[in-house]
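Input chain follows. Return structure tokens only.
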Amino acid sequence: MADLDDVRRIVESLPEATFARDDHDAVGASVAGKGFAWTWNQRVEPKQPRVPRPEVLAVRVAGDGAKQELLAADGAKFFTEPHYNGYPAVLVRLAAVDADELRELLTDAWRAKAPRALVKASGL
């Protein structure tokens, strides 16, 4: 079972990645100014502000094929919502993944957004 501390630890281990966390446990991870993971904000009530859900992380993926593959692999771990239709990200229930799987997801997300030279130099 992964948690936000695992997210922080993994993100901070990635080259030039930054991690931010606010008072409501909303988090964001970026590299070169580009976000690759963030807290899911759920629309609970129509026409009302979204509510941060720190137990779910939105994670960038390489493309729609990678997204569909994750969604088909395990609906208990991965899901999406209409807001993310056509967007290369999948929603991850942190309690359903272990730290190793989270590391793989975040590293792939980092790789998708990091500058090519940084990815090449890092060997990741």
